[in-house]
Amino acid sequence: HCYQAGTVNLFSTSDWNEYAALVAKGYCRDFKVYLQKDLDFKRGSISPIGIASSSFCGVFDGNGYSVKGHV
């Protein structure tokens, strides 16, 4: 899967939203997150990674890729 010992590799919009849900619940907040391909949310909704009560405090590396199709 995309989670390994403090690192998250995001390969899809589903991976993104799944990780965002974990962070919102207080899990995996300090992980290193790496995009592994361009993500386009034009056909789905994007969830924020972190919320006011459970903020993301890790490192996000776009790894040369981009996130598009979000508002």
Note the topology:
Blueprint: E1 3-4, E2 7-10, H1 13-24, E3 32-35, E4 39-40, E5 59-61, E6 67-68
Parallel strand pairs: 2-3, 3-5, 4-6
Antiparallel strand pairs: 1-2
Write up what this structure looks like.
With 71 residues, the chain is of the alpha/beta class. The chain contains one helix and six strands; from the N terminus they run E-E-H-E-E-E-E. The protein has one helix spanning 13-24, and strands at 3-4, 7-10, 32-35, 39-40, 59-61, 67-68. It has a four-stranded mixed beta sheet with strand order 1-2-3-5, covered by helices on one side. Helix 1 links the parallel strand 2 and strand 3. The longest helix is centred in the N-terminal third of the chain and has 12 residues, at 13-24. The radius of gyration is 11 Å and the shape is globular.
Key words describing this protein structure:
globular, 1 helix, 71 residues, single chain, alpha/beta, two-stranded parallel sheet, 4-stranded mixed beta sheet
